[in-house]
Every structure is written in C-alpha cells, then in structure tokens.
Amino acid sequence: MIALLQRVTHAMLRIDGREYSRIGPGLVVLLGIEKDDDESRADRMLQRLLSYRVFADDEGRMNRSLRDVAGDLMLVSQFTLAASTDKGLRPSFSAAMPPDRAEQLYDYMVDKARTESGVTLATGRFGADMKVALENDGPVTFLLRG
C-alpha cells in the first residue's frame, strides 16, 4: 500500500464538474493499492496516517499528528501510485491490485476511517475521473509505503 500524504490548508475534490467533497486544514492522502495488500495493511496504514507527526507544535517542529490537531482527512484512491516506472517510457500497472478487489479494500479503509478515526473524513469516488484542488501547507508531502 502506498500513501502520498500532503499537509493542506484546504482541499476540494470535483467529479463531473461538481464539488464532491471538501476539507479544511488537514491531510489529503492519495492511496495506491497493490496486489498483496489486505485489511491488516489497510489498518496499519490508516493508523500511520492518523498518527504521523507532520503538524507543527508550539516550537514549529513537526510533532503533532492529524488527531492531535483535530485536522480533516481526504482519502482518494489513485491506482497510478502502484505503477512501476523503472524502465521505458510508459508506466506498468502490473503491481496494482485489480479494480474490483482494490475497491473493496478502499471501501474497507474508508469505513474504518469514518467509524474509528475521530477525524472529519472526505473521500473521492473509486474509479472516477476526479479533479483535486488543494493548497499544500509548507509544502509538506510524504510518501508512506507498507
């Protein structure tokens, strides 16, 4: 599982030209699901996202998590993160989980985040052509694997 997280001041996601979801200060997470991923990896990744210390404390150090600052979370599926770009001029998606299984795992993670995270959650729609507008705060961006 691959998560590209960006600390944001705000973000909005559009589908078919209409606003679908929006968050205030928090994290936008683009989530790539790979063939070997399962619910235990999804659980671990969600806990990392909620606990990863990327927000400043009173001294300006990144010592606060999304939970600590009561930030919002936007979770967006993005299969292109699972692409292999090591060779050639075109990405290979052989490491990506097939869409039907990936959607089930994405939905599982969304449900867990909605019911157990304690943060405001926004999402995209799996498989949709989405437009994400955000203001990256810092900029602060991290790639988490696992």
Describe the structure.
By secondary structure, the protein is α/β, with parallel strands linked by helices. It has one domain: D-tyrosyl-trna(Tyr) Deacylase, Chain: A, CATH 3.50.80. Helices cover 24% and strands 40% of the residues. The protein contains three helices and eight strands, in the order E-E-E-H-E-E-H-E-H-E-E. The strands form two sheets. Strands 1, 2, 3, 6, 7 and 8 form a six-stranded mixed beta sheet that branches. The radius of gyration is 15 Å and the shape is globular. The model has no long low-confidence stretch (mean pLDDT 97).
* Class by SSE composition: alpha/beta
**Annotated CATH architecture:** 3-Layer(bba) Sandwich
Into which percent range does the helicity of residues fall? Answer: 10-25%
Shape, per Cα inertia axes:
globular
SSE layout:
Elements: E1 2-15, E2 18-23, E3 26-32, H1 39-51, E4 55-56, E5 62-64, H2 66-69, E6 72-77, H3 99-116, E7 120-123, E8 130-145
Parallel strand pairs: 3-6, 6-7
Antiparallel strand pairs: 1-2, 1-3, 1-8, 4-5
What would the keywords be for this entry?
6-stranded mixed sheet; two-stranded antiparallel sheet; 146 residues; D-tyrosyl-trna(Tyr) Deacylase, Chain: A; alpha/beta
